[in-house]
Structures are given as structure tokens and as C-alpha cells.
Amino acid sequence: MGRKTTRRQTATKPRLQAARKGKAAKLKPRKAQSKADSKAAHGGLPQWTTAEIEAAFRRFAVANPEPRGELQHINPFTLLIAVVLSAQATDAGVNRATPALFKLADTPEKMIKLGEARVRELIKTIGLYRTKAKNVIALSRVLVEQHGGKVPRDRAALEALPGVGRKTANVVLNIAFGEPTIAVDTHIFRVGNRTGLAVGKTPLDVEMKLMQVVPQRYRLHAHHWLILHGRYVCVARRPLCEKCIIPICANGRAKPSIRPR
After folding, report:
1. Are residues 96 and 150 in the same domain?
2. Which residue from 135, 166, 197, 253 lies 20 to 30 Å from 31 (Cα-Cα)?
């Protein structure tokens, strides 16, 4: 006997067909967008099903099998420095400043020798450059004195470094050491709340929810897929729903089920 088709599945089929043809994204008016975002931020969105989450990340994986972070770096140390410098700054802005810095200092020892004043001069185009230059030299000293000049593969040790918080530690653990961590920045925070994938009032809330719901096989790259999605598609002011490959979003369209293609 065939499987009974539910009313929801019947209503969903045309939307899925339209989504696959790139015609499903019809953006709500600005006022409706704000209302939907507010609803998401307060936990008012229905939660995704396991099948929907699986399908969404499968699509991310098909579209971009090997996602990469956009911060330029040479080794774990320069990655750490780049992430520290990226706080309240754009990756593009950091990438314009770091090539000259890393050419002169790509190890903690060289950075200490370079000195705070010189570091400050090299990164002065980046926001909060004075504080960041101070932290770069201070964390370099800690790495030399306590970790033999190596970046530790340990969250607590990373977070103990000057200028390093949970998000920075997660990025370093993920990119430098292949740990399946998820660093929640403003883009992931927005995507998690706007779509209902991982609703939370703080970045830590969203991170913990993502770690619960993202399938293990997708967790290593989930951080990059979600950041890139938030940076280039699900942008803050005018989300580019017409480019979205995961048609589940209260802000742009109805929330359909997603079944395997």
C-alpha cells in the first residue's frame, strides 16, 4: 500500500519545484522583514526538522564542498593574529593590512622583535588598531613564554591569550587544527535567528544550538557555509533571497519541508 500524502506535503510540492527553478524567493516588504526578524530573535519561529537541516547542509556541501575562510594567513600564528585583528573590522580590511605585517613577522618571536609601535603603524588602517597592536605583542609574549612559541590546540589556553575570546578560539581550532567548532559572528547570529535554524539571544546560545542540530558530518564546514551565506546571501538589510539555496526562511518565504532531491 502506498504512503499516504499529507496536506502539508501536497502544498509543499509546488514550492519545492519553484525553489529548484530559482523562482521561490519572494521577499517580504521591509516592515514584514523587520517583524519576522523580531519574531525570530524572540524564539517565535518553528524549529527546523531533522530532515530539513540535513537537506539544507547537503545543499551547502554540494554548492561549496571545500569552503575556506577569507582571512589571509600563512600558519596558525598568523591566522590567530588575523582573527584578533578582525574584531569589529572586515576581513577585506584586515587582508589589506596583514601582508606587510606577516612579511616581517610570521612567528611570535619576530612579532615581539618588531615591537608594538611598528605593529601599530602597520595596522593603523584597521579599527581599534592601538589596542590590537598591544594585544598582538602581549599574546606573542605569552606564546613564547608559556607555549614554546606555538599556538596551543586547547580552547582554555587560547582564550587566556590577550585579545582572544571564544569566537577567535573557535576559528583557530577549526581552521588551524580541523576541530568541528562553530564560531558565531554577526553573520551566523543573524542567519540562525532569521531562519529559525538556531534561535538564541546571545552568540553562545546560537553556537550551542548549532552544535546540537548540525549533523556531525557537516560540522567541520558549517562555520564557513553559514558565514558565507550570511555575508553574501542572507545579508542584513536586503537579503538576496533569489540566490538562496535553502528555501526555509520566515523572512523571505513560507517555511516548507525539504525532502531529498
Report:
1. yes
2. 197
16 located within any domain: no
Count other C-beta atoms under 10 Å from residue 28's C-beta: 17
> Which residue is catalytic, options 28, 31, 124, 167?
167
Q: Give CA torsion, residues 14, 15, 16, 21, to 10 deg.
A: 90
Rounded distance between C-alpha atoms, residue 174 and residue 168, angstroms: 10
The CATH number of residue 126's host domain is 1.10.340.30
pLDDT band, very low/low/confident/very high, at 54 (cuts 50, 70, 90): very high
Catalytic residue among 150, 185, 205, 255: 185
Please give the pLDDT value at position 37: 56
Same domain, 231 and 103: no
Active site residue 185: yes
Q: How many domains does the chain have?
A: 2
Q: What is the pLDDT of residues 205-216, one digit of tens each?
A: 999 999 999 999
- Cβ atoms of 63 and 217 within 8 Å: the answer is no
Within 8 A by CB and 6+ apart from 237, the residues are: none
For residue 91, indicate whether it is catalytic: no
